[in-house]
Amino acid sequence: MLLNRNFIYFTIMALLLIGVGQFQSWNVSLSILNLCLISAIMALGVNIQWGYAGLFNVGIMGFAALGGLAAVLVAMPPVEGAWATGGWGAIGGLILAVISISLAVITYKRMKAGRYRTISIITICIIGFFVTRMVFGPATQAIEAINPAKSGYLGGLGLPIVVSWPVGGLFAGIAAWVIGKITLGLRSDYLAIATLGISEIIIAVLKHEDWMTRGVKNVIGMPRPVPYEVNLQTTEWFINLSNSLGAEPIGFSSIFVKICYASLFMLMLLIVLWLSETALKSPWGRMMRAIRDNEVSANAMGKNVTKRHLQVFVLGSVVVGLAGAMLTTLDGQLTPTSYQPLRFTFLIWIMVIVGGSGNNWGAILGGFVIWFFWIEAEPLGILLMNVITSGMSEDSGLRLHLINSAAHMRLMTMGLILLLVLRFSPKGLLPEKS
Amino acid sequence: MEDLLNAFFLMSNFVFVPAIAYGSQLALGAVGVTLVYGILRFSNFAHGDTMAFGTMFVILFTWLFQSYGINLGPLPTALLALPFGIIITIVFLLGSDKLVYKFYRAKKAVPVTYLIASVGIMFVLNGIVRFIIGPNDQRFADGERFIIKAKTMKQFLGTAEGVSIKVSQGLTVVTAIIVVMVLFWFLNKTRTGKSMRAFSDNEDLALLSGINPDKVVAVTWILVAILATIAGTLYGLDKSFKPFTYFMLLLPIFASAIVGGLGNPLGAIAGGFVIAFSEIMITYPYKKFVAYIVPGDWKPEGLVQLLATDYKFAVSFIILVLVLLFRPTGIFAGKSV
Predict the structure, then answer these.
(1) pLDDT digits (tens, 9 = 90+) for B204-226
(2) How does pLDDT run across B40-63, given as a tens digit for each residue?
(3) Which of A27, A273, A321, B286 would bridge with A67, disulfide CB 3.0–4.6 Å?
(4) Nearest CA to A124 among A103, A106, A93, A95?
(5) How far is B132 from chain A (nearest CA, A)?
(6) Which residues of A touch B98 (CB under 8 A)?
(7) Domain housing B197
């Protein structure tokens, strides 16, 4: 029965995408598909946290942005001279910061509570802060001074961009570990608020640390894991292929590139899905659900609830970071200003809840359905507004306002969908198997 | 001596006065969050957008009054529009409670469900606000701009710096004091207020003693609407109104409420000032200040700023983390962890 339901929903989804391909254009359809795949992976990550363990993470945007940062640091070619002038200073500054924080933590753990401990910790923090800034400040300024119009940042390691995907996961995992260590074990609300905070801070760092990410000047022209259209158009086998399909090489090349991306993303999705399903069915997965459904009894059975929560929180964030790196790869650029919480955090939440929390297939379906409608709602909204306002005169102020505001209808619609699903079908489209 | 006076005036203009005003705004916001937490037992993620929603209607009514030529002379017209904004916000919040939260209360849902529902409401509010007034900056302050002008002060004292206090800052502090006094009178002296506190302390016991939970919840939402609209309007008068900024206020507001201890209104007020003062003091560039207090040629090279202004949210976050690490119930004991 459940398999049937899976099959029906995914068929409908495929038909919708094919419909867009037929009636709008295959280019649009494939772009939607690519982002659907990435959204599905992000939704899987959130489902690991929420569906398996009931952890409410409001900082998905931040973890995805860390993935994007990894893409820059791993894949961009290093900027000549930047490492020599300030690279080691910047890294040294970061290391000094880590050392001073660790020293403070060690002091806190080793010394007996009292006035002396407080004083020494504060001294360590203050000295550490100023020493770090003394090393860090000049170094970053030197980096930013190198050809600011074109680079003005460190660049990356120049490795293939696919390497950045697991690195993105690693970055997100580390951030999640720190946050989880602080807030897990306290009330569930605290995790939500802390993740909200850390994601805003991560975005602020991406926007303002120009030496690392070029800030709001954006990093563009990132290397690709797939061939470039221009190169394809002059390659012989590709021209033969498009001729044999009866397509025009120029138009077909962009479709071909999108298909390459889609295959890569599909592969990643299948790997993550396989891992998540295996984990969910394993004794570990059963333990996680036991903890989610009744923390007190799981605790009484000798399960360390806080530790398991930390584990699952880190795992889920790793998947989100991975998807974030993939997203930046697809975009080919890192634009810190494009990270909006409504688009990155709350939209993913809606995917998970609409799809069916606790069910990996549900999360994937949610990713597809919600992304599809998020994209298609805009033309629909404008169409709707045009119909509503068709009786008004061409230059009526109200009409122009309504048409211009149509884009904001999406937010409201998403909120309503979330509220309605939560109320009337809390298990989502594909409920968790019990 | 004169340099010291100058330094003091400088601090007052750029640190003390703005921090007191900002702190009052945060405090009013945080009291709203803490009330919802105490009575309904969840962190209301829609609070920032509730503030934006209320403020938007205040702005719309302000524009309406301005178009009729109605104003308050030296005071901003927004004060006249405030009650209308509050009423609409009350209607919205009571409606959202009836349509959304009531169902989960009847089901005795876990707190995280309320949290997600509040995210849904946040989305809806966000959409409504952007749909009606757009995502851009709106300025709606009118009337006099300054209570004390720096220029007059300079001429009077003959110093290089003068103290200036904006009308919006004075208004914020006066309004906040009045609102908080009325609120505490209400919570401590009236029957309804007492029943709210009883409900917050021990729900079962309160229900046993015949307190009507529906009434308590409704009164809470009304108070939240009043506080949120006032806080939002004051913030908008002091700075400017932009829907996204109000969403971003969520973090310092939550930090204030947690620092003070969730569920504790007095703590929320203290927390608001702690967060506001730390945020402004840590991100203020002390260059000019240092130049006044050190002898002539020791002037600092850089800005003497502890943290760039771009990271002001990091300040509330770090304070939040420190409080969670060392005193998870807040500096005044709040609800249990």
Answers:
(1) 888 888 888 889 999 999 999 99
(2) 888 899 999 999 999 999 999 999
(3) A321
(4) A103
(5) 8
(6) none
(7) 2-136+144-249
